[in-house]
Amino acid sequence: MAQVIETIDVDVPVRVAYNQWTQFEEFPQFMGGVDSIVQQDATHLHWTVSVGGVEREFDAEITEQHPDERVAWNSVGGDENHAGVVTFHRLSDAETRVTVQIDWEPTGLLEKAGAVLGADDRSVKKDLEHFKEYIESRGAESGAWRGDVS
């Protein structure tokens, strides 16, 4: 199993960073390779991604979500086997640390080589940098879901 852990500090309050992260359908605005996400209900998402020129679709379930603290998920069904968590840490009234941890099982030669060479780490780091630019340039979240999933 492969794992990525990346962290970035964003210059917005924790509530703003968290609220924006709950707007899953906007992920293509700052995540490379994410073509679309459809939120089916409060805890189920359908993803369409392009990885190495190959389009894939999979479903994910939010398994834990606590406002201003964390969002955790698992893939469900299909060939994708991954799980992750993003946590939000208040550094000050106007600054938040966002940490992403993703665990997955690479399939195929390309994914296994990418994991060994650190391509996934670089990709997640770049996505977090784009999230920072996205949320800081907006100054406010585009929406929010403040529900709690235990």
What is the element layout, followed by pairings?
Elements: E1 2-10, H1 14-21, E2 34-39, E3 44-51, E4 54-66, E5 70-76, E6 82-92, E7 95-104, H2 108-117, H3 119-138
Antiparallel strand pairs: 1-7, 2-3, 3-4, 4-5, 5-6, 6-7
Short description:
The protein is an alpha+beta fold and 150 residues long.
Descriptive report:
This protein has one domain (2-138): START domain (Alpha-D-Glucose-1,6-Bisphosphate, Chain A, domain 4). A hairpin with a 5-residue loop joins strand 5 and strand 6. With 150 residues, it is α+β, with helices and mostly antiparallel strands. The mean pLDDT is 91. It has a seven-stranded antiparallel β-sheet with strand order 1-7-6-5-4-3-2, covered by helices on one side. The protein is built from three helices and seven strands; from the N terminus they run βαββββββαα.
